[in-house]
Predict the 3D structure of the following.
Amino acid sequence: MKVVGIDLAGTSKKKTGFCILDGKLNVKTSVLTTDKEIIKETVKENPDIISIDAPLALPKGRDCLKKTCSCRKYGHLRKCDRELLNMGIKFFPITLGPMRKLTLRGIKLRCKFEKLGFKVIESYPGAIQDILKIPRKQKGIEKLRKALIKYGFRGDVYKKDITDDELDAITSALVGKMYLENKYTAIGDPEEILMILPK
């Protein structure tokens, strides 16, 4: 089993966390920037699944994120986002502020990977961490790193200089592993996208 977890940044000027995970929770992580780098490193690994921490689809009825477009009337939330709200899990609406850039980049990468024949899922480390009782990075990078080690991760999770982006990429990869093992739950509307969470 091989999973690639990607904690995608909104632009190539910021760091994207990248993780390769095997079936025994061994991880290799790095920081990437451009779409070209992300695609190249992913294709090189030829994973069974790619788990991306970014919105990978728009709300039903919307075909763009332009403020002036009439499709704006269909709102800012997808069904999976509304289900997160019902679960009491905090997140940023995907069509607002800097999330717009991340959403468009995520959709673009998803399309490229799927055209290359890869299975791609949308993940959200904050939700995964809340469900598994793992502290989010906002509580401190070291707390998150130690919690992931306690969970059973090995390899680069022990790097002292590991970034929060890499730690979230590990978390994204974990739910990809759970998906392959059928230990997941999917929320949302398949006509939009299903968000994958731990069972």
Notes: The mean pLDDT is 95.
